[in-house]
């Protein structure tokens, strides 16, 4: 088993049903349904929470006030006096809050005087963020993944060009310059014991932030949203965390441990979708597997370039070094890295944090493939581990979901992707065959030369600290990067 409590995960539990939800239109709809059926508790953990977010935006990002999440939650709490509704968000720095409509100020004002308990959590290492994205209902059903609550998060799997539901404003001629980019997210849905564990995670975070100890809610039957198909049955679920050392709370690096164990254990394919690929530790581990004559394929999906200037200047430059490392190690031709675009060739932001290892592990969460997420920020990942015979049960579902994601990127039928992979003898070769056949919505990630100031940014991982304290000691970052590189190499070497 890859999921080992105390090492690669905090808890390992069995979920009677589980599902992967692709993109936020489906997630918002399912979350609204599930929260609407809550009996005792609705608890939300978020990096950001914009109160005016619509569950079902209409053209021009309009909709009834009852469809806005803050109004919805306030109504739930008002209509059911026995329902405990709480939101715990990161007390973000001003530059970050400014990019999300100053949500900390808006949230405080929105929930003041209501029965919804809202709190901003700033108890963590200086420069770190609380990055978990979780909704727990009655400790019976829970969502966990990479999606925050905000208008710019919403999109459908079709990632349509000029979707009027992503338009902030409407102009008589052409689009608004402020339209939201297409965005890709994934969320996991579990019930039973894993949901109860996520409820405990919320209560521990709430106590740490406020000092208030919350009781465990009464046992309730899971209210599974009917619009979500449960792809997994009786599946092993692991919860892996990251938390930087703070006060008397020790450092937690389960997210990192699971990445290294899974990469080392992969046999055929490592498939990753992520916002950032910058960690030298993970780069070294992947490079070690690519250098093996019979090692696995590595297929990465990321955004063509970050939407913000800061991330372009920091994370994008460091990603070039990450990809160059894998290119150099790819002596057997098993590495591909792509960025997705819409039908008209416009950027799709890949905000998902997903890893699929062969047909045995499906991982969804908040953690990026960067230094912050491995040891500095507060993260939570959810993993489904499948056992049994290959090609059956939950193992078959993992394969189907990977095919579904690839077909969604290419804009074609699942059967076309399956046939191409089978004929080419591998995922990377199958994708290349489809791209050559005209399915051009996946493009190789461009690797522009990193020179001058950009080279220094990449070498010292500016903006991407390794651990508490490192955020304010840039002279340590290069040595830490080399140390991480050695650890990743040693992990791969130990497997070989």
Q: Flag low-confidence runs.
A: 170-177
Distance between the termini: 19 Å
CATH-level-4 superfamily name of the largest domain: Endonuclease Chain A
Q: What is the fold-level CATH name, i.e. the topology of the largest domain?
A: Endonuclease, Chain A
Question: Any idea what the CATH architecture of the largest domain is?
Answer: 2-Layer Sandwich
Strands, helices and their partners?
Elements: E1 11-22, H1 24-36, E2 41-46, H2 69-79, E3 84-90, H3 94-99, H4 103-111, E4 117-121, E5 134-137, E6 141-145, E7 182-184, E8 186-191, H5 193-210, E9 232-243, E10 252-253, H6 254-265, E11 269-273, H7 280-290, E12 297-301, H8 309-313, H9 315-329, E13 335-340, E14 348-350, E15 354-357, E16 361-365, H10 371-375, E17 379-385, H11 393-410, H12 414-424, H13 427-436, E18 442-444, H14 452-460, H15 477-495
Parallel strand pairs: 2-3, 3-4, 7-14, 11-12, 12-13
Antiparallel strand pairs: 1-8, 1-9, 2-5, 5-6, 6-8, 9-10, 9-17, 11-15, 13-18, 15-16, 16-17
Helix pairs in contact: 6-7, 6-15, 7-9, 7-15, 9-14, 11-12, 12-13
Overview of the structural elements:
By secondary structure, this protein is an alpha+beta fold. The protein has two domains: 12-232, Endonuclease, Chain A (2-Layer Sandwich); 254-495, Endonuclease, Chain A (2-Layer Sandwich), CATH 3.30.870.10. 35% of the residues lie in helices and 20% in strands. It has helices at 24-36, 69-79, 94-99, 103-111, 193-210, 254-265, 280-290, 309-313, 315-329, 371-375, 393-410, 414-424, 427-436, 452-460, 477-495, and strands spanning 11-22, 41-46, 84-90, 117-121, 134-137, 141-145, 182-184, 186-191, 232-243, 252-253, 269-273, 297-301, 335-340, 348-350, 354-357, 361-365, 379-385, 442-444. It has a 16-stranded mixed β-sheet that branches. The protein has a two-stranded parallel sheet with strand order 7-14. Helix 6 (254-265) runs parallel beside helix 7, helix 7 runs parallel beside helix 15 (477-495) and helix 11 packs across helix 12. The radius of gyration is 22 Å and the shape is globular. It starts with 10 loop residues before the first strand and ends with a helix. Mean pLDDT is 90; it is low at 170-177.
């Amino acid at each position: 088993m890859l999921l080992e409590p105390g090492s690669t995960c905090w808890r390992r539990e069995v979920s009677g049903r589980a599902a992967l939800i692709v993109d936020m239109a489906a997630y918002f709809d399912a979350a609204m349904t599930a929260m609407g059926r809550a009996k005792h508790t609705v608890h939300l953990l978020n990096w950001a929470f914009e109160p005016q977010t619509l569950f079902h935006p209409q053209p021009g990002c309009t909709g009834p006030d009852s469809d806005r999440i803050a109004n919805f939650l306030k109504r739930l709490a008002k209509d059911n006096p026995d329902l405990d509704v709480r939101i715990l968000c990161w007390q973000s720095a001003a530059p970050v809050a400014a990019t999300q409509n100053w949500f900390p100020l808006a949230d405080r004002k929105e929930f003041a005087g209501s029965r919804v308990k809202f709190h901003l959590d700033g108890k963590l290492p200086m420069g770190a963020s609380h990055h978990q994205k979780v909704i727990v209902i009655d400790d019976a059903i829970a969502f966990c993944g990479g999606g925050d609550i905000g208008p710019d998060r919403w999109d459908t799997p079709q990632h349509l060009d000029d979707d009027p539901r992503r338009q902030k404003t409407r102009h008589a001629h052409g689009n608004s310059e402020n339209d939201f980019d297409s965005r890709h997210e994934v969320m996991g849905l579990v019930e039973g014991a894993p949901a109860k564990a996520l409820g405990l995670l919320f209560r521990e975070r709430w106590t740490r932030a406020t000092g208030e100890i919350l009781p465990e809610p009464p046992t309730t039957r899971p209210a599974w949203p009917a619009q979500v198909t449960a792809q997994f049955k009786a599946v092993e679920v692991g919860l892996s965390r990251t938390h930087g050392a703070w006060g008397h709370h020790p450092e937690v690096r389960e997210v990192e441990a699971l990445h290294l164990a899974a990469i080392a254990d992969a046999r055929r394919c490592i498939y990753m979708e992520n916002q950032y690929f910058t960690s030298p530790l993970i780069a070294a581990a992947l490079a070690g597997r690519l250098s093996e004559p019979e090692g696995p394929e590595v297929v990465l999906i990321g955004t063509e370039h970050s939407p913000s200037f800061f991330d372009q200047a920091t994370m994008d430059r460091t990603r070039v070094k990450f990809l160059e490392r894998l290119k150099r190690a790819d002596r057997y031709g098993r590495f591909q890295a792509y960025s997705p675009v819409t039908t008209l060739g416009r950027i799709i932001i890949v905000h998902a944090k997903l890893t699929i290892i062969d047909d045995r592990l499906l991982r969804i969460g908040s953690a990026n493939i960067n230094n912050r997420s491995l040891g500095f920020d507060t993260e939570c990942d959810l993993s489904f581990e499948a056992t049994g015979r290959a090609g059956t049960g939950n193992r078959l579902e993992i394969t189907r979901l990977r095919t579904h994601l690839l077909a969604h990127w290419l804009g074609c039928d699942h059967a076309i992707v399956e046939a191409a992979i089978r004929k080419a003898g591998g995922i990377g070769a199958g994708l290349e065959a489809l791209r050559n056949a005209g399915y051009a919505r996946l493009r190789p990630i461009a690797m522009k030369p990193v020179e001058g100031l950009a080279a220094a940014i990449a070498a010292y991982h500016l903006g991407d600290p390794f651990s508490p304290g490192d955020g304010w000691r840039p002279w340590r970052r290069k040595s830490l990067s080399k140390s991480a590189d050695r650890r990743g190499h040693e992990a791969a070497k130990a497997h070989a």
